[in-house]
Structure formats: C-alpha cells, structure tokens
Specification:
Length: 110
C-alpha cells in the first residue's frame, strides 16, 4: 500500500482529478485538503502559491498507471506525484484499498 501526495492549483481541478482516479480504480480514496501554501523554487525563482493537497491511497502495483494518469490530467508542467510506502495499517483497511484498486476482470468468453 502507498500514500501519494499531489498538489493542484484549484479545488475544481483537485476534485476532477480525485474523481477520475477513484472511478478508474487507480485510487481507493483521495482526500482533498484545501488551504495549503507552498513555497518552492521554479525556473530559478522562489515562488509561493496557494494549492490543494491530494492524499491518494493506492497500491505499489497501481502506482505506475496512477502516476501516468495524474500527469495526463494535471495542469502543471511538472506535477508533484510523490509516493510514500505504508509500513503498517489496519488489515481491513489495507484489504479494502487493495480490493478497491484491483483491475476488473475481463468477462469470460462463452
């Protein structure tokens, strides 16, 4: 299990990306945390901006597809997509995350 951190500039984009990740089974859950202030270096200058933080729960197996999908949906040229391993979690929660992001099996041919 992984927790991924993603920042976006506006709540509307945050909810659009969060919904897409959950609908596409790339994330089990995405927390949308408004009111984040970021200070960062971009193109040689120190910048400051208000952002929205997405806290994304997924699995290591789904991370490559999740990372690529965020890059495709994200308005930033270089979006933050950082994954952190979950060392321990409630077993039932971990199982729910794994089940939630499991790729749907293709129907068997008759």
């Amino acid at each position: 299990m992984l927790v991924c951190l993603v920042t976006v500039p506006h709540p509307e984009e945050a909810y659009r990306i969060a919904r897409a990740l959950v609908e596409e089974r790339l994330a089990a859950c995405v927390n949308v945390v408004p009111g984040v202030r970021s200070v960062y270096r971009w193109q040689g200058a120190v910048e400051e901006a208000g952002e929205v933080l997405l806290v994304v729960k997924t699995t290591r197996q789904r991370f490559p597809a999740l990372r690529d999908r965020i890059a495709a949906l994200h308005p930033y040229q270089v979006p933050e997509v950082v994954s952190l391993p979950v060392e321990d979690a409630l077993a039932a929660y971990r199982a729910w995350v794994e089940e939630s992001v499991a790729e749907a099996e293709s129907p068997r041919e008759a």
